[in-house]
Specification:
- The protein is of the alpha+beta class.
- It has five domains: 24-110; 135-239, Immunoglobulin-like; 259-335 and 346-360; 369-520, no CATH class; 526-671, 3-Layer(aba) Sandwich (Glutaredoxin).
- An eight-stranded antiparallel β-barrel has the order 1-2-3-4-5-6-7-8. Strands 19-18-17-20-21 form a five-stranded mixed β-sheet, with helices on one face. Strands 12-9-15-16 form a four-stranded mixed β-sheet.
- Helix 3 (259-283) runs antiparallel to helix 4 (289-309) and helix 8 runs antiparallel to helix 9.
């Protein structure tokens, strides 16, 4: 018995000695556990050591054991149930041997700067181009030595990028765990420009389909590194930022500069940035071909976007013809591929340039209801058809007369005479505009003509098959998004006929199925959709508004003036469930007034965002009544929000749900609560 106790005590002393030895050695070689090492042959970041774990193979591994071995270390690491044996040699002249799972050791270089130094060899590869097939990218990482603002619950890591098929910004998020680690996987169409956690670290980089990237951000040392099978370009972009604030990114009127002068400045910026790239590659000759291509493409597309946006500073919102031609020759024909590499600037430029170019090519689509009656698209009696034919003749005569007359007074006289003589026809056209069936015909025919014009313009400009597919997908997506209604069969057939990119067709078919399903489903709590009959015959905006508010006396009312055609309106409505939850304690009623919104689209938006319940009331008033109410409310833009108190009095207080804190303070004031 006594001998057993002595043996147990001896084993305990041995274990205690080993523990003290390990702790002593750790304190003596503490620098290993705050260091990063790269393979000098490839230049890639191989392994990073921190007191809390080890970064290897795009993962964070926890220490299972740390045992001194000679002048180095034998480490047993664990991640997700998998173990890894690592042997680290002694540091000599900034080098250590690192062996993983018994494989031959790599003599690694210690990293000393905040970013990766130059890669040792040249790299002439271009960007991966997968033909625009949907793939995925994973970005994982670790925020080390986080400041207090990045600690605690509810912290997330964000990836933001532009989807070129929809020309919309997408954001995906992943939670930060208690140690600051994250992992997010998101779909990409091709090699893609992305913005990583812009509010905190503002990393602008490029990722390639099918790849996994690990991002280390050490807030203590300021070090930022990418690990991955092919992380060279992201590391080069961290070391030599290609983005810049262009002098074109401002209102040319503030610089007292014409748009032609802005165009010339763009050429100057291109030359300056090319000279800067020459200087940079002279100092860093192994910068990859992808980095050089991205640098050049970034300034080209940034110029294109800024010059295209400058049309909004012109009195007629159009670029001068010389500037438009310059954009076509200098930028449109030279856009870098894949187009997703500069997705944000690409989407903006394509939208603005094509819209502006339509005017110069005489391709702006238009449609007149009187012509649709005459052509049989809108059903009408023979009497009305003849009325519209006479109106068309008179209208063309008016256009010809106005083109010849320069005197404003005489021009006004011609218009007033036309209005008097065509009073019956104009009254009938007003009736058509209020008719849902006729309105649908007008919208459908206008869309058909706009699509034909878009195809003609693309043929005139010349473009790759991928660019044509992207531009046409933008067109069809805009129809679906703006109308919140399924594509008519004629347009759906055009998708198959005109677009070859399978991923683009898949996107449009999915959106089509979404809206078909909405249209086939009932509106829940349909009593939230109110009839305009309650204000029939009223013309005064104040009276109409008072009648609409009357049922809710005794409750605060949030008035939302919106439209199915309004992107910011729908973006705000998509967050309505959070709004309803916040307002519920105060008994607030949400009164929605739709501007110029087709009935089916109106219903679809209400279905899509679940804007129903006892706290919701929706009106889709006739245009004249809606305009009268908007005049009383002082509507200047959409969406517009107003708050009415318990008596129905509209208050001049913060009421925008997108700034929820301010709205809640206003509501609390009405409710008499703190």
């Amino acid at each position: 018995m006594e001998s057993n106790l002595r043996r147990a005590a001896a084993r305990m002393m041995l274990l205690l000695g080993m523990l003290l030895l390990t702790q002593g050695a750790f304190s003596q070689d503490e620098s290993l556990f705050t260091s990063d090492w790269r393979d000098p042959a490839t230049g890639d970041w191989l392994m990073g050591f921190r007191p809390e774990g080890v970064v290897y193979d795009c993962r964070v591994w926890d220490y299972r054991t740390k045992v001194p071995e000679g002048d180095g270390w034998a480490l047993l690491l664990e991640s997700g149930g998998e173990t890894l044996q690592v042997k680290v040699g002694r540091e000599e002249d900034g080098r250590r041997s690192i062996a993983v799972d018994g494989r031959p050791a790599t003599v690694c270089e210690k990293l000393s700067g905040r970013v990766m130094p130059d890669y040792p060899t040249e790299d002439g590869r271009g960007f991966t181009d997968n033909g625009y097939r949907v793939d995925s990218v994973t970005v994982c990482g670790w925020y080390v030595n986080r400041p207090a603002r990045l600690q605690g619950k509810g912290q997330t890591f964000e990836v933001t990028y532009t989807d070129v098929l929809t020309a919309k910004e997408r954001t995906v998020t992943a939670p930060l765990d208690s140690l600051g680690r994250f992992r997010v996987t998101f779909p990409v169409l091709n090699t893609q420009e992305v913005f990583l956690d812009w509010r905190r670290i503002a990393v602008h980089t490029v990722v390639e389909p099918g790849e996994t990237y690990f991002l280390l951000c050490d807030f203590g040392s300021g070090r930022r590194l990418f690990m991955g099978r092919d992380s060279r370009l992201p590391n080069e972009l961290l070391a030599h930022e290609a983005s810049f604030r262009s002098p074109l990114y401002q209102d040319p009127r503030e610089q007292k500069m014409s748009l032609e002068e802005l165009m010339a400045l763009g050429d100057k910026v291109l030359a300056q940035r090319e000279a800067l790239l020459d200087s940079l590659t002279g100092c860093h000759p192994t910068l990859s071909e992808r980095y050089r291509a991205y640098f050049r493409g970034n300034v080209l597309m940034d110029n294109a976007r800024n010059i295209g946006q400058a049309r909004f500073f012109s009195p007629d919102f159009r670029l001068p013809r010389t500037v438009s031609d310059h954009l076509a020759e200098r930028y449109w024909s030279r856009m870098p591929q894949p187009y997703t590499v500069h997705a944000q600037a690409f989407a903006s430029f394509v939208r603005d340039f094509l819209d502006d170019r339509m005017e110069y090519c005489g391709l702006r689509a238009s449609v007149r209801p009187d012509e649709l009656v005459c052509e049989g698209f809108i059903r009408a009696s023979e009497e009305k058809r003849q009325l519209m034919e006479a109106y068309g003749v008179a209208f063309r005569g008016l256009e010809a007369a106005l083109a010849k007359e320069a005197d404003e007074a005489l021009r006004d006289s011609l218009v007033h005479r036309f209005q008097r003589e065509q009073a019956e026809a104009l009254a009938y056209l007003d009736v058509l505009m209020d008719d849902e069936e006729a309105g649908a015909v007008v919208r459908r025919e206008l869309t058909r003509r706009a699509l034909a014009s878009r195809c003609t313009l693309l043929d005139t400009l010349g473009c790759t098959g991928a660019l044509r597919d992207i531009c046409l997908t933008n067109f069809f997506h805009a129809y679906l998004d703006n109308n919140r209604h399924s594509l008519p069969q004629e347009l759906l057939a055009s998708v198959e006929e005109l677009i070859g990119m399978e991923s683009a067709k898949d996107l449009l078919h999915a959106e089509q199925a979404h809206y078909v399903a909405l249209e086939e489903s009932p509106v829940p709590d349909a009593e939230s959709l109110k009839s305009a009959d309650v204000v029939a015959g009223l013309t005064d905006g104040g009276e109409i508004l008072d009648r609409l508010l009357a049922p809710y006396r005794g409750r605060p009312v949030l008035i939302d003036v919106w439209g199915t055609w309004c992107g910011p309106c729908k973006e705000a409505l998509s967050h309505s469930q959070e709004l309803y939850e916040a307002l519920a304690p105060y008994g607030v009623v949400c009164l929605y007034l739709a501007n110029n919104s087709p009935v089916e689209s109106w219903r679809n938006v209400i279905r899509e965002y679940r804007l129903t319940g006892s706290h919701c009331a929706h009106y889709n008033l006739p245009p004249e009544q809606q305009a009268a109410v908007e005049s009383v409310l002082g509507v200047r833009s959409y969406p517009t929000y107003r708050l009415a108190d318990r008596t129905g009095r509209v208050l001049d207080v913060p009421a925008d749900p997108r700034r929820l804190a301010g709205l809640l303070e206003s509501v609390k004031g009405i409710a008499g609560q703190e």
